[in-house]
Amino acid sequence: MDGKNRKDIHAGLTVDIVLKKDQRTGKRTRGVVGDILTRSTTHPWGIKVRLMDGQVGRVQEIIE
Q1: Distance CA 15, CA 5 (A)
Q2: Nearest CA to 57 among 3, 8, 1, 11?
Q3: Domain that holds residue 40
């Protein structure tokens, strides 16, 4: 599942995100959602989240 809908994402969920510095390469980072930073219900590039370890990026995929 992609990370474009805010309703699909919640704290404690394991996700793959793309960090700001990795946007050109598309390198993904896996982690656990701590906070949801995007306020809108959807976002075309993915919902922005802060992982438990403090890294911030846009959700590319939700890991089941």
Answers
A1: 13
A2: 3
A3: 6-62
The reply to whether 1 falls in a domain is no
For 62, half-sphere exposure in the C-beta direction (CA atoms, 13 angstrom radius) is 19
**Nearest in space to 38 (alpha carbons), one of 19, 57, 13:** 57
Matching residue, tokens 């370890």? 53
Q: What is the pLDDT of residues 4-45, one digit of tens each?
A: 999 999 999 999 999 999 999 999 999 999 999 999 999 999
15 and 63 in contact (C-beta within 8 Å)? yes
How far are the Cα atoms of 9, 58 from residue 51, in angstroms, in the given order?
Answer: 12, 10
